[in-house]
Amino acid sequence: MSNIAQVIVNIPARSIDKPFSYLIPEQLPAIDIGWRVLVPFGSRKVEGFVISLEDEPTDGLKSILAVLDDYPWFNDNMLKTAEWLSRYYLCSPAEAMRLFVPGLSGIKSTKAYQAAHAIDCEQASILLAAKPAEYRTVLSYILDHGPVSQADLAKLPGSIETILKFLLQHKLIIHTDTVLKRGKASTIRLINLTVSKESAAQAEQALPPSKSAQRRLLHALIQTGELSPTELRNLHISADTVRKLTSQGLVASREVQIFRNSYNTIIHKVDEITLTTAQQQALQQIGPVLKAGIHKSFLIHGVTGSGKTQVYIKAVAEARGLNRQAIVLVPEIALTSQIVARFQAAFGQDVVVMHSKLSVGERHDAWRRLHSGQAGIVIGARSALFAPVDNLGVIILDEEHEFTYKQEDSPRYHARQVALFRARIAGAAVILGSATPSVETYHQALSGEHTLITMDKRVDNVPLPPVTVVDMREELLKGRRSVISPALTEMLAEALFRKEQAVILLNRRGYSTFVLCRECGHVLKCRHCDIALVYHTPGHSLRCHYCQERHTVPDTCPECGSRYIRYFGAGTQKVEEALNALFPTAKIIRMDQDTTTKKMAHDKILAAFAAGTYDILLGTQMVAKGHDIPNVTAVGIISADTALNLPDFRAAERTFALLTQAAGRAGRGNKAGRVVMQTYNPDHYAIVNGGMHNYQGFYENEIIFRRQLNYPPYSNLIKITVQAGDEIQVHRNANQLAAELSPVSANAATTVIGPFPASVAKVKDIFRVNILIKTKDMAEVTGHLANLNIACRKDVIIDIDPINVL
Ligand code: ADP
Ligand code: ZN
Ligand code: ZN
Question: pTM for the whole thing?
């Protein structure tokens, strides 16, 4: 029998990348691969994950202390996915495995106080006699309750800090660390009869009228069989009454698990809709794959409003019919409440929604419902990918091109990659959907890696809205300086006149962006981060968006002393003012980072706008995404090209996707839509094709550029960032690392670029230098990187397939 467990300890230290051996104690024979356990580690008790069993000699090994669950937390599929994550993304096994644990850890340690082992109560009372009564209360509370946290003690009267200090000083109590399991299941006690209804009725009769509460309880139990605490309260039955009947052997209680109701489900009634031909054709391809239980991936390239969501719902229904589970990923749950509502309408309690506002306890409940099979569908942002589903049938990634699918902290995984791996080993289908697929995914689809399904018409053949492109350079030549062109004004006026709604997208945030000296061209930058400071009207302040430091606006230029310091660029507030001036009666709601953190969350703003409370929704990228509001007929895009000049190889892709998605919000119902796009680059292919909803046109231009410069999908990128507090040191370290990489650059398939300072060369006084690797041979490069062991260096960040290369 194997009695040694190999355990990955769940601590974030990246330098620990090996499992440790622990003895499985005899009283915990169930421990097996995949279990979460509590183990001693140094002087601490930590969570651990069992990854394998062995039977070696057992000398000197420490024992596992406890199990955290009564079932294996990780199934085989989850273990394999974690192993792959750690290999592909070069993170430690613990970093990969903790992704599967809500809140990243199953336990929490708290400081607690308990009575000293050798406490002499008589001596203690002599010592405390001279002290106020609160001292004795605190000590006897600790004596009675065992280890108690400071939070618990804070409820007691008196100045608890002083009292504890005194008790510690005189060695009456000691500090301890208690480890509590997080996300314990909530339970309630249900009261029921232990005798037959007839006997209970006889007992009720036999009770004197004065015992009316006992009679009421028996009576109610005869009627309903079982009572919850709330029902007992409503019947005005006290715990004492229950106890009395329990001691007479008439009633008993049992404990049942309840699930915190985190997402109030409103079950809408849905009319069975007839699928469009395109939807049917999509499902004809997906259905057989689900039935066969084989892995296959699909890319649904469907224009905005083509009915992709309905295909997802039907595919999930098909998987559920086969008793297989589904993971549905959306880029951001707050912006996608409509898709969530549609899944809930279709599947009710079978859906678990992973919302970022859920507490760790609620996350655990959600996980338990999936694990126990009480729910079969999980919908959420990228972290829902790590749900404990045993019988995976399909993973869906809606808006697969969105960058939020990439995690920006270690492990820097991309949800699409992980989904494809997890589904492959589970024999499950993957459905990627987008109106603007990422260039990489589309390229893979064209080369046969995914089955391409095209849905090129909107439901009911509703036309895509025509786009008017306004050349802002010409506007300037004509002397028009307003941020809102006449064409945009006219479109808005017409929509407002017809009581329709408008969305205005501004690819920026704040009142104005940077502050520039008109005489010498100096731009005010953050002294810690080397990045332009952003001007914010409230408080008339400058803020660094990287380190959040605030500065006051100088009266004169710090470079040349000129007084002509002026604000550049238009922010949402400025546009709002311009709109107010043009349309004084229109009700405008602004949605950007400033308003969503202060006033209302995204979903509330969107809901109010959808309900018709506002005429115009104005905001940054967020207004472009996901919503389906039939009364929106006008979409205006101010400075369509802001993102185009970012020094990033995906700038054109970002711009095209944003424009197409924004335009896609217009005219989705039975009213015709229109779009006005303002730009300084009307000839750029991202703008030209964006104006024509022409994905293929965009792709054909973009793929040439990618091939010429050997960017993804023609290569994989790896970004290595070296950090140090000292500028000379950081360059020295980076150069040394680059030298160690020379064996990989010897391979013709691989190029090493740099070291070069990161585009934000300094953050919070830490200097950053990048090395970029471009390769057609990922396995070789990551293998070499793994051998160099740089993944566990604290001063090095490895980003595999980075979204941001600078
Ligand atoms: P997409 O996700 O492709 O942008 P949606 O799934 O949101 O598109 O569909 C657009 C609109 O068309 C929605 O209002 C949806 O309810 C409606 N719709 C989808 N499929 C059908 C159908 N078969 N018949 C009628 N209306 C449909
Ligand atoms: Zn100046
Ligand atoms: Zn800064």
Answer: 0.79
